[in-house]
Fold these 2 entries.
Entry 1:
Amino acid sequence: MPEVTLTVDGKKITAPAGTLLIEACKSVGIEVPSFCYYPNLSLQGACRMCLVKIEKMPKLQTACTTVVSEGMVVTTDSDEIKQARKSMLELLLGNHPLDCPVCDAGGECELQDMTFSYGAAESKFMEAKNHRDEQQWSPVVFFDRPRCILCYRCVRVCGEGMDVWALGVQNRGVSSIIAPNKEDHVECEECGMCIDICPVGALTSGAYRYKTRPWEMKHVGTTCTHCGDGCKTTLGVRRADTGMEIVRGDNRDKSGTNGDFLCIKGRYAFDFAHHEDRLMQPLIRKNGKLTPATWAEALALVGKKFGEICDREGGQAIGVVGSTRITNEEAYLLSKFARVVLGTNNVDHHRTADFPAFAAALRGKPGATASMADVFTAPAILLIGNDPTEQHPLLAWQIRNNVRLHGAPLYAINSRPIKLRRQATQFLQISPGTETQLADFMAGSNDAADALVSPSTSKDAWLALRDKLKTEQNLVIIFGSELRGAAVAELVKFGASVSGAKFTCLGDYANSHGAADMGLYPDLLPGYHPITGSSEFHREWGRVPQSAGLDLPGMIRAGKSGTLKALYVVGSNPISRLNIDPFVFSNAFVVVQDMFLTETATMADVVLPAANAYEKSGTFTNTCGDLQLVKKAGEVTGLKGDFEIIVRIADAMGFDVHKLVPFGRGTQADMGQTRGAQSGEADRHAVWLEARGLEPKMSPFDPMAILDEIQRLVPGYDVSRMNLLAGNSQHTSLAQAGAGAAHKPELISSANDNLFTSGTLGRYSHALQSVIESHEAKHSEVAAD
Amino acid sequence: MKFSDTFEVRFAEMVTHYPTKRSALVPTLLYAQDEVGCLSDEVIAELAQRLELTELEVRNVISYYSMLTTKPRGKYNVQVCTNISCLVRGGEEILHHCQKKLGIGHKGTTPDGIFSLEEVECIGGCSWAPAAQVNYDYHENLTAEKMDKVLEEYRRKEMQ
């Protein structure tokens, strides 16, 4: 785009033609204040705070709606402008309640900041302020009308950004108000974007309001533990009886791939961590009852039992079920622990997408996976299956905003009329279960189109669509778990005929992709290396059993027949999620480490209380393959991370943990001695070390030691460690992955969560439950009419 | 919801006038209000669906314009201007007179449902101030006596 030269405050600056004056000023560090202007939302020109003087124009102009032009001479700081800003603030404050000392936004309020910067502390208004009681619009959204300054950011982000359109403006002039779509409440996706974007405290969060002040929290930017999209969420953490309490979730630093976006889960559903049913100490079954025990007792028992079974029956008598919510380091460690310490390949996890088939199909194709950022910038998108609005809210946000801001065409093919059809250039509905034929058709089989033809879409229309897609450049192809096995390969085959095509395979949980990458499979090692072949892992790990182990159905069969003597379940609830008869493992020694007494944990012999993703460090790989840091928000007394538990079980079995975790190679470390009062606090220790770029790996519980090994050995994970530690997402690659494996399609079981459910975590979140209840209540009201 | 054929003909033509359906909203609302008497929930739902808008968007627009109403009015809506020109020429007195005469206040409706009264901003009749508008008819250079006659005229029309 051609550059335009203009003068701002005597400074010559250049900006691309079409740039807004306010952005041009910002780019050279000149601050033009504004409330209503918000990047990537439509222009409003409502607040009049950004008034500047432009030569040859009769009146002050709004910098947020003026486009730069050649030779423009602008003044942003003069007595006239100062007076204008002051008057605007005086007007805004005319009816503003000034209850800052009790307002949630106090301390991080844009109106406060502006008043500080631009004056208007004294007011000429003598009139009584209009008071209105605050309203509760949903379990999680509250509206305090007098505080509202009518910037309309909430209206625009809800409509343009979310495509929900639940907020509007009613009346006119001084009586204008923000109004919800259902008279006294909102019916919406409850994402809370309106709260985050509100420059004042007019919209407040049900989860956070009146709980604390912004400066009393520690703010930790970490990766959300709910769906597979990997949004960065900033947790506001406060000291509590248990060690720490999360009081708020938002995305205050906006540095994640999610930018402004966060859904209901990332924003409110952190409260599972403080659920009253949380396990706080180990339990051992004594006389048929789970009885509280010490960690030492529990770990010793597990070590002894596992050791005995290994000696007596061999590792193949033990099954290991991994998790889709543990970190990559823990998944890798578990995979290694099973093979090297227990000597078994009976390893599996709750599979929600066919990543092995995906890896096999993309083998040797560099740059063929799309990152979450690519979805926003892609020139065209093909979406097959899934319902991202419900199951991948960030992905849906990226797609919607790509369509809205960049005009990218979206081609959506689904068996249901998903909401994203509203953004689609072309939406084609197919019969459920015909996704495989769709993949075949895409790959070139014209006969397969017969299954796709419907009254609304003829065979010719399908052929035309395929031809059209082939003309797109750098098409991003996103597909749900409807496509498995050979269908994935067929789709990738089609992608080869589109120049620069990239793929994303959608898995359900926070680290579903990572669990697959780290080899939580009976026949695959990390990086999709077949167990039967030879790889770096066979050489480095040494003792890898050579034949494929049991998958979950196999473990169930072995449990029934009595050949499975022990089951080690890490952060998973297969009994409930996969509908398994709870008594099949009655004769096996079952160890479960989890946050709650789940259906699986209730039948265990030992239950170990595990920390969740907000209480530990490591990395997650989102469904697009973006590697991101998981930062510990704080520690809860009595709990241990899965990493530490696995290492200690190995130790209790008499295994040399140096062979499991490559620690103790550091030459210099600060273990807290220089920090006086703060020494000994593991969470601060991690933060302190990170701030100084130190990674001593002096501890066998240091996940960074395993990350070293992952980066060294797992193909595609050799990303920039510095960028990763700095909090940026790093895209991994599958091009160098192992050969993968062909798995039975029925081993994949989709979670089918929606916006308000979240696997096993959601039911422990009061915030999510209250929203589900309020939505159900409204529906039953309607039904009763 | 069913509208008259006249409405349907007008509506069908109206939507062809604009590049987006949304643009036809205000005239459509006026036609619907003239026909139904007010913009009821039913009317709002129907028009939102026809113009591919949310009901909230339709309500936002209705609440912006004082000429649009969601509550039933009298058959004749007397709108007395009290903006500057009318004010200096006795508009306020006309309004007070109407209030006394009809026994209702701003936005009130007489019990027989014949009249409702509204104080409005400029209606563009400044050259002949003070002015009032009854439904779509203008009455200018008003005095208390003249206003009485105007009201009488409408009442008589109603009696016939």
Entry 2:
Amino acid sequence: MVQSERRLKRGRQGEFVSKHVVARVEDIGPGERRVVTVRNRPIVIFNLDGEFFGLLNRCPHQAASLSQGIQAGFAIAEVPGTERCIRRGEFIRCPWHGWEYDIRTGQSWCDPESILVRRFKVERVPGSELVKGPFVAETVEVSTDEEYIYVEA
Amino acid sequence: MSVRETILQTVEGSPGREFIIDSDIHPEPYSPQSFRERLPARWREHCETYGDPQRGPYAALTGYPRYIPRTSRRDAWPSNGGLPGSDLELMREQHLDRHGVALGVLEPLGQGSWTRNLELMGAVCSALNEWQLEDFVAHEPRLKASIVVPMEDAPAAVAEIRKHADNRDFVQVQMNSLSEEPFGRRKYWPIYEEAVSHGLPVGIHVGGSTGARTGGGWPSYYNEEHYSLVNSTQAHLTSLVLEGVFEHFPALKVILIEGGIAWTPALSTRLDRLWSRLGSEVPHCRKPPSEYVKANVFFSTQPMEEPENPEDLLQIFADIGWNNILYASDYPHWDYDDPEYAFKAPLSVEQKRKIMFDNALSVYRLD
């Protein structure tokens, strides 16, 4: 068990962030997701083919929990009759009004310029690195021979 | 104590807490089969033999499949295996308790006047009315029921209203918008006469299966159908005014539910202009159409308009009339409007109170 170590640094918007270990890599399989709470914020962690991404679990439209939606791709068509599906599973669709967000960026599909879900940096880290810090591992037992997911929040 | 007094007592008992009235909550049975058990044997056997002829988005078959199961929020499926809207505990947690709903008006959908078989229509409406009381209102006094009527069979509809008229757990009569004829036509007048005689407003909720979707033929997509429901609401509003329904029943209050609201000032203005020139065709319409709309018609908010400039909403509301707008959630459906987030415009305390509470308090029968 590593010591909780809260060395804060500045995030993208100048706010203080710290690195929080939230799960073992094997806890969230490819295509799966899990909601974690970090510094009182609900964050949904996605595994897209081994890459991890984190979004605030709250739709900017009417505040529904995005984690209750389905992951989908898009059917597109250049002209009628040429429909095809792209980026299957890479968007989270709000369980209420169906607004769709790119899991990799948090940007909405319908209005990427102005509507986005807050994104959190999520990375994998070997347990052997964790013990060196600075990480906050309040809810996860850490051992040096496994791999973990941390969120910067 | 009257329903209104009970509501006001609740509000006064929790100073500082905000309460709302919701004009559109959709109750569902645990399953379609569990509801069918409530029908008389004659109709259970009919449905088993011939199949259920009721067709709509909430029944087994629809011409316009939804992109989301049961047209419902994906988080509204109860853990007990029932349909969204069937579990009171979840409804309380997600909506009634969470948002301080002091009164929620039940609007059963998908059955009743959703078949052309008049006898079945009547039997299902009767069962829907008993079911609302037994499965919802009896356990949750904040919920009140609608008298669902077999609207294409006026004598049967009148009998159904009469059967429940003295029961204060019913606060309105309910019809649905996809009808055989525009609602101003005389065949529906006995329903209005009976409703008015008991002080009951008539709610018209979009939907149904019997009527044409648009005046321009049958569309292809759910996108089109969702919008085309607005057309049916517009047709009814125009018909009610121009056939003289409000002239004949000045005390009639009509609530248009889930048909959108931003179009109504434009329609009223257009009707006024026509009436000012061609009024002699409808001499029974003694006032400009917009005056009947302002005096007799109320609009539920969901699905709330979201103009690019949110403040445009204030002008839309002002044009419709601040006293004519009722908050609706549409719980548990996918296009649910959360009362905290649905209105993107900055409403004053007084404006908000009218939409969220006061208007409904004077529209429904709560004495």
